[in-house]
Amino acid sequence: MDFYRILIQVTWTGVILAEMVTAAVAAQLAKRNTCQDRCGDVGIPYPFGTTKDCYLDEYFFINCTNSSNGRNPLPYLGNVFVKNISIHGQLDILMYIANDCYNKTGFQSSNRPSLRIPDNFTISNTLNKFVAVGCDTEAILTATRNSKLFYLGCVSTCESISDVIDGSCSGIGWCEVEIPKGLKKFSFGSNSFWNHTRVWSFNPCSSAFVVRKDLFNFSSEYLSSLRYNETVPMVLDWAIGNEPCEYAQTKSGYVCGGNSTCYDSDNGNGYRCRCNEGYDGNPYLHDGCQGIIAALLCTSWLYLVLERRKLIKLKEKYFQQNGGLILEQRLNKSQRGSHETVKIFTAEELKKATKKYDESRIIGRGGFGVVYKGFLSDNRIVAIKKSKTVDERQAEQFINEVVVLSQINHRHIVRLLGCCLETQVPLLVYEFVPKGTLFQYIHQHSSISTLPWEIRLRIATETAEALWYLHSAASPPIIHRDVKSSNILLDDDFTAKVSDFGTSRLVPQDEKLLATVVQGTLGYLDPEYLQTNQLTEKSDVYSFGVVLVELLTGKNVLSSIRPEEERSLAAHFLSFLKKHRLFEILENHIVAEGNEEQIKEFVEIATSCLEVKGEERPTMKEVAIRLDGLRKRKKHPWVNVQSHAVVTENLLAATCVASAEIAGYDSMGPVTLIEYGR
Ligand SMILES: *[C@@H]1O[C@H](CO)[C@@H](O)[C@H](O)[C@H]1NC(C)=O
Ligand SMILES: *[C@@H]1O[C@H](CO)[C@@H](O)[C@H](O)[C@H]1NC(C)=O
Ligand SMILES: *[C@@H]1O[C@H](CO)[C@@H](O)[C@H](O)[C@H]1NC(C)=O
Ligand SMILES: *[C@@H]1O[C@H](CO)[C@@H](O)[C@H](O)[C@H]1NC(C)=O
Ligand SMILES: *[C@@H]1O[C@H](CO)[C@@H](O)[C@H](O)[C@H]1NC(C)=O
Ligand SMILES: *[C@@H]1O[C@H](CO)[C@@H](O)[C@H](O)[C@H]1NC(C)=O
Ligand SMILES: *[C@@H]1O[C@H](CO)[C@@H](O)[C@H](O)[C@H]1NC(C)=O
Ligand SMILES: *[C@@H]1O[C@H](CO)[C@@H](O)[C@H](O)[C@H]1NC(C)=O
Ligand SMILES: *[C@@H]1O[C@H](CO)[C@@H](O)[C@H](O)[C@H]1NC(C)=O
Ligand SMILES: *[C@@H]1O[C@H](CO)[C@@H](O)[C@H](O)[C@H]1NC(C)=O
């Protein structure tokens, strides 16, 4: 089935299940399904209700009427607007401000707010305070406490607005009083001593209100701006009945439901209910408390399952995107008759092998990606290459290469052991080659003598054999496309192993030429390929020629020190040859160790590989055979026998041949070259 369809289906299943779990808990807020459990934005839990059969008694009736604009219904408790109802015994309301206002001639208007449904609600003593604002002001709150009348109040005066400091000094411009416990049935008002005559210009009203402590800071602006029809937030405590649990529990009206506990209200009379630990819901309903742990377990289990599935699906997606199915088919086919096949590693296996891709395991980095050293569980040491992104269209080609490379078993080509397709970018697993790259030995090791002439010749020969094999023995032929000294690895005994087929291309059998986007490394790039975009085996031959020159001279392939037209080592080398100064460009101890004839021919081979026209270059087969012949030829120690002057002379002779070729005088080429080359 299509991956996305599965994912969407799984996600929707999750969403629906999660909603069902939430709903199972939330549905217990109202008394029964037919009861309205919301009014506008406010949840209405039992014992509150909007209709007769939904509230506990009429004192808990919420009048859910349409607002004046007729759209959003608003909940009212008696005459006050309800902002929030908490199942834990609090009620957020908006309460009116009391005002006593004057105009120039005298008294103008006053009001005295009160809560008309008083009995089951107490002013929260912890969250509110009583505040008066004015400069000619006395404010009184009247309430019942233990069924007796109770008064509290404060006085505030000031002479001018400059006496008043924002937020400070109760008594100047404003005053406040803490609320004691147990105040019910309250109303409050404010009065003036001198009809505001002395302060009227900046303070025409005396104001008073009960307000949430955390939502009010005094500001001198209030002296002129508070109006009688404004409201401020305050908190009421609610409880059931007027008896503590001890008595209530024995009586018929006791409301706490199953798996809940009764506790006494700490502000006035009455009791409250609370769900036992591990339960959540509405404790005032018969079976309102639900095992929340079960709900939690269910949701978290569901979450885990979904995440796991997502991960598996993602891995599968990458596997398919990276061509895993094609690979499986190909491997199934090629498995017959072949013992050694590429293994498909799991992402987990390779993560373990590289210590979660630890920095310390990095053995190489480049444009291609990163190479890690890895230890497999069977104690094999491997090199794991994490490539850059492979896009979906390239997947099949990539797989093709993996399959072909997995079947190649050549001494001088790094063996591909397997790959992993479950990650976003495919991971390739190669045999580990301990001594690093030829590049390091030529350019980075302090002692260049670590590579004697004989070994250089051997590395050249082995590399040529590997490329010949790729071009001819493998079917379809493979063009390496990025032959360079840093892609030639050295084994313990300096055996060469060609590596990095990241850019390699398989040449379709019926096409000799392959048009591609030019890829490769500057300094090694075939100039003809650069011009025509036509990739042939001869492009590898050119790059190999550059490697031969590197082996001869030990110089950098690109150098900004050299004159512009000789930046590339190939041009630099050919220019020296042309000027008959080959001797100057050779590395010193090659001259010391090497055999005149060998070096002469090595130079010839390199030069022929660097021909501008691809068709004039020898094939890898010809190059390999010549190099092999060279190795087998008897050595004639050079320095010991001949004097320096003779050496130079001989080399100059070789140079003549080479430069004649460069100039295009093919007919003048030496016989040996023709014999080997064509
Ligand atoms: C609810 O409030 C509206 C508007 O204030 C009022 O007209 C109506 O009578 C109230 N309903 C009850 C049952 O008190
Ligand atoms: C509130 O408004 C809705 C839609 O505007 C209407 O259907 C409903 O009857 C109104 N309710 C009251 C109590 O006015
Ligand atoms: C309502 O009160 C509950 C409990 O005190 C609180 O968690 C919730 O945030 C409040 N909701 C609003 C809109 O104030
Ligand atoms: C002051 O208020 C009283 C009562 O509202 C009104 O009769 C009177 O005209 C007002 N005077 C002025 C100057 O506004
Ligand atoms: C305040 O105004 C009332 C009438 O509005 C008046 O009887 C009273 O004397 C005035 N008091 C002062 C101190 O002016
Ligand atoms: C009141 O002032 C205090 C301290 O300056 C501040 O932390 C708080 O946020 C203020 N409250 C409001 C509602 O402005
Ligand atoms: C308060 O009353 C004034 C006029 O007295 C009016 O302009 C204002 O809109 C009222 N505010 C509210 C919130 O009703
Ligand atoms: C609310 O208060 C009234 C009056 O005191 C009382 O009769 C009634 O039982 C109370 N209701 C609840 C649910 O506590
Ligand atoms: C209390 O919870 C248990 C387990 O969650 C359940 O079996 C039992 O029915 C509940 N009791 C009531 C009265 O809901
Ligand atoms: C490959 O072979 C295995 C068993 O031999 C089989 O389970 C798998 O489905 C095959 N894969 C393909 C893509 O044919």
From TrEMBL:
Catalysis: reaction(s): L-seryl-[protein] + ATP = O-phospho-L-seryl-[protein] + ADP + H(+); L-threonyl-[protein] + ATP = O-phospho-L-threonyl-[protein] + ADP + H(+)
Which first-to-last residue range defines the signal peptide? 1-18
Residue ranges constituting the EGF-like domain according to the UniProt record:
241-290
Major place of localization? Answer: membrane
Q: Name one GO molecular function term.
A: protein serine/threonine kinase activity
Membrane topology value: Single-pass type I membrane protein
GO biological process, alphabetically ordered = cell surface receptor signaling pathway
Q: Kindly list the residue ranges recorded as spanning the membrane.
A: none
UniProt entry keywords in alphabetical sequence: ATP-binding, Disulfide bond, EGF-like domain, Glycoprotein, Kinase, Membrane, Nucleotide-binding, Receptor, Serine/threonine-protein kinase, Signal, Transferase, Transmembrane, Transmembrane helix
What CDD domains does UniProt report for this protein, alphabetically?
STKc_IRAK
Cytoplasm keyword on record: no
Q: Which cysteines are joined by disulfide bonds?
A: 256-273
Name of the molecule in the record: Wall-associated receptor kinase 2
The species this protein belongs to is: Morella rubra
Organismal lineage: Eukaryota, Viridiplantae, Streptophyta, Embryophyta, Tracheophyta
